[in-house]
Amino acid sequence: MTDKTSHFADRLNAQIKKKDSAVCVGLDPRLEQIPDFIKEKHFAKQKNPFTAAAESFIEFNKGIIDAVFDLVPIVKPQIAFYEQYGAEGMRAFKETCDYAKEKGVLTLADIKRGDIGSTAEAYAKAFLGKVDLNGEKSESFDVDAVTVAPYLGWDGVKPFVNEAVKYGKGVFVLDKTSNKSSADLQDLQINDGRTIYEIMAHYIDSWGADDVGESGYSLVGAVVGATFPTQIVSLRKLMPASIFLVPGYGAQGGGADDVRAAFDKKGLGAIINSSRGIIFAWESSDSFTEKDYAQAAREATLTMLRDLRWE
Amino acid sequence: MTDKTSHFADRLNAQIKKKDSAVCVGLDPRLEQIPDFIKEKHFAKQKNPFTAAAESFIEFNKGIIDAVFDLVPIVKPQIAFYEQYGAEGMRAFKETCDYAKEKGVLTLADIKRGDIGSTAEAYAKAFLGKVDLNGEKSESFDVDAVTVAPYLGWDGVKPFVNEAVKYGKGVFVLDKTSNKSSADLQDLQINDGRTIYEIMAHYIDSWGADDVGESGYSLVGAVVGATFPTQIVSLRKLMPASIFLVPGYGAQGGGADDVRAAFDKKGLGAIINSSRGIIFAWESSDSFTEKDYAQAAREATLTMLRDLRWE
User: Fold this and answer.
1) Which residues of chain B make contact with A84, given a CB cutoff of 8 A?
2) For residue range A24-65, what is the model confidence (pLDDT) as tens digits?
3) In CATH, which of 3.20.20.70, 3.30.420.40, 3.40.50.2300, 3.40.50.970 is domain B8-307?
4) Residue B230 is inside which H or E element, if any?
5) Whether the complex's predicted ipTM surpasses the cut of 0.95
6) pTM across the whole model
7) Nearest chain A residue (CA) to B174
8) d(CA A201, CA A210)
């Protein structure tokens, strides 16, 4: 188990050093891509198909985590894929996070939440802090970090930062996302010539300025897509103390050279996420069948690791 | 039950006409404010405190819905308050929505989701459409409308609009939110002089242009806070076919005069939300005790209704 009293950035950078790896595996299960041998078992056994979906996700994810836990500092379940199966899906989400923690891997919940202050506080307590249970306080999801959407400004981010400070957790604020239409809003230029993602970088840098750990990084990180390598270079300068969460590697088109500028000279300060490219690697492989999905995920992780060492 | 084959804006406007009411009740249960006689019963009975919290929410919400269903066209549960209690909380969210539908009230899930295309699709199917259960398709949350955050641009909104078109549902995109620091991002002025919320209004208007119902309104609505009355006036002109969801009435400071410009001449095209001011009305009342929380909510709704008729 990780030490929750120490700073999130220090905990993450220590894991990156220890495993010599900045690979973040995205645990984004899609039922239609889960191997049949897993699905069929659970759909035969469970009366409630939502429970069967949840159990299929749990078994699949445990297989992936067992195969990669020694190779990656952190995993990132995208909550949408769990939430779509309601209460049972959320149970699978929690069991996945708990299992990753048991295996000594940090957990980053990709939730992209953001709301007015009092509501953001409810989310923040649920994922990073403790919730009220009629006077008693208890952890609910208890992950190591979350992603947050900044459309509502500081009000919507602050409650997450507050809980993160209190419990040694981290917050990754969306800045320049990996999707094509991120330009619709994020690339707009304001009257002083800066783009919205540059303004946002300024906010992110200042929001984290009070909470920098021993490794030189803040607990407020930034999401910057691998699909925008030029922006990675310029944003790294605007947010020298923010850990970058870089999605969009692999399936979305980003490569190792595209993300190199996200790292500092010691190879720290960034995590590069791949989801489909790793967890469903068996689908595009000639050497693996669905039974070997976990082994295929390990091989894909090792390949990505080598690519990210630029050897 | 409402007819899901007809257009969301028509269904909502028909409810507003029928009940002569544009009040939206925010179902935002906070455990510390749930009457003791409800909480104590469930915390005594249930071994799992998360189940006790969920059961308390369900009983409380059913009481509120029973008291107001004939007075309001729509209710808006804020999912954060449920989600904080994990899988059990999400069950309470679903049971609340299902109960409101049974009582002939539309349901608007305040989820503020927004993600890259393939992920947004998972959310959209979960809340508005149908999810895959190993080949079978089934409804998951099945609410009438959702709120969506636009930081990722059209990619992140489109999947919701697609499902809304297919199933007669609605989408409310955040434009100018009711919180103070909405200015951080939303009030920035771009190089042609327009603010981000004006740009966003332009997007929202265009995103809904292809899907206008018989009542003249689109299935893509906008969230515009009651706390910004001047912006309500200007935004109404920029989005003539969008239904406005107006939060920030009551507890957050907005009043009836502030929101008047959100409505068209027939009194249609807007819903005004109040959460704490209605569901916890008994707390600030001399005439009601906690046992009468539902009656207090009905009285507060009637007062708000009268205020919004400007009689």
Assistant:
1) 122-123, 125-126, 131, 140
2) 999 999 999 999 999 999 999 999 999 999 999 999 999 999
3) 3.20.20.70
4) helix B229-238
5) yes
6) 0.97
7) A151
8) 16
